[in-house]
Amino acid sequence: MDGVHKVLHSGWYILGSSVKAFEDDFAEYCGTEYCVGVANGLDALELIIHGYDIGPGDEVIVPSNTYIASILSISANGAVPVLVEPDLQTFNLDPAKIEAHITPNTKAILVVHLYGQACDMNPILEIANRYNLKVIEDCAQSHGALYGDKRVGNLGDAAAFSFYPGKNLGALGDGGAITTNDEELYNRLMALRNYGSHKKYENIYKGYNSRLDELQAPILSEKLKWLDQDNEKRREIASYYSDHILNSEVILPIVQHTSKSHVWHLFVIRVQKRNHFMEYMNKNGVQTMIHYPIPPHKQEAYREWSDLAFPISEQIHAEVVSLPISPVMEMGEVLRVVEVINEYRTN
Ligand SMILES: *Cc1c(COP(=O)(O)O)cnc(C)c1O
């Protein structure tokens, strides 16, 4: 690829013109003023929280059924993650449950557009506005999803993206980005990702080393051109599954807003006899996965939460199964998945 060759021959491998070009491309795509390339999605979240001075004594509301990185980013800053249950139908944070968890120490709501579906943002933004809370988006699974006429990444105060290879926009290694319209935060983040320095050897913050790799940037700029098309392919597969899977043992995922508000990072169904179902699928040549098998409050890393109960999350974690979905899937493979599922019986 030309862009990769350009970097190789430039001799400039850290924070060069390719990272800057990708940041401009991605900000434009998301509709935000600014984008900051960072090393990965977890760092993107952690840097936003740090950038807003959220730390010890502060609380951040976060869904109880998210991928662990969303929660780790809060803990890493010394702040307290306050877990709130999702909606069983959408798997996303339930706006109606947020307010009961707000205290004088609450500083932000970290929303996760899980599995690729944009959260129900209007009621969340309304609550945040009323209590003067920051809204941070975890967009690691939702590149390109629309809420109304805006893209995720442009719905709150700041947003974190991951470019881990398996994401809807993936690099050939680790990568991440932050999008925001907040100029002050942007300026801080530009220093925070680079040792807290705007000017070499002058450190105004206790910063990080978390930079988007220069070699990944041209790859991401190129792949960004295909993102909408890839997401459309995912939508076609998802709607085929939704229209043709017919089995009373299987609960299909729902789309809450418009078809464009979901980019189907994962197609997640719920099945009561999960092990039995997954074994059956495997025997019939269809590989399924679980996102995620253990709820965050049952993780060893958060053993202090082991006595807490989050029944909806626990049900989700016990029942979810991810079906194959990717822009490179052939239609024949999609038909086969449907056929196998429709023949599934529990006895
Ligand atoms: C992948 C992911 C992350 C972390 O991204 P990395 O680039 O792997 O650090 C954070 N949040 C969610 C919801 C993710 O799926």
From TrEMBL:
In alphabetical order, the GO MF annotations are: transaminase activity
* Regions annotated as coiled coil: none
* Superkingdom of origin organism: Bacteria
Q: Which InterPro entries match?
A: DegT/StrS_aminotransferase (IPR000653), PyrdxlP-dep_Trfase (IPR015424), PyrdxlP-dep_Trfase_major (IPR015421), PyrdxlP-dep_Trfase_small (IPR015422)
Q: Return the similarity comment.
A: Belongs to the DegT/DnrJ/EryC1 family.
Keyword field contains DNA damage: no
Membrane-traversing stretches:
none
Q: Under what name is this protein listed?
A: Aminotransferase
Q: Which UniProt keywords apply?
A: Aminotransferase, Pyridoxal phosphate, Transferase
**Can you name the source organism?**
Paenibacillus silvae
